[in-house]
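Predict structure. Chain length: 201.
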Amino acid sequence: MKILAVSDHIDPLIYSSSCKTKFKDVECVISCGDLPEHYLDFIVSTLNVPLFFVHGNHDPSGGQKSLAGGTNLDEKVLVYRNRIIAGLEGSYWYNGNIHQYTERDMYFKYLRLLPQLYWTRLRHGRFLDILVTHAPPRGVHEGNDLPHRGFSTFTTIIRKYQPKYHLHGHIHLYYTQDKNFKDLLYNTWVINCYNYRVIEI
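Prediction complete.
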């Protein structure tokens, strides 16, 4: 399965007439947050593939169940083309706006995922293939300031359930020479999807 993962920044290479040609083999789009609906709508309409998303800390609506016709992954586990995908939205709490959480908040969001994770383990023989979040895990790709801190809860999920991939955004990479976007944590590839990444599983 080939995934187009996007986050945080409108890329002119995607938001153009060449999108369909450049990403013709993509089978789904995953948004890691902080992108406007019109941009996501353009991508999924052009490629005619499903969208799965989580909200970032700059997304405007706290209650959006659907964005550009996509599926909100927050606190959900779903199976798409035999891949188990789960999501948790938001960033570390820093000023009290929507989609911001303390570590304790995020831990309770994770607890609400547990019944679904164990159900997929019973049905498919494994817990999770892809974890989708806006913020990074603690200790990998995180920033030095409070808004860009990673969550220890995500590190716990990775350690216990060993998804193949953890896709996140939130941490902006401004320079092409900054290649620190993919790191191995336990047995999971943690990928910063800022701007966009094409991931083939």
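Summary: The CA atoms of residues 2 and 200 lie 4 Å apart.
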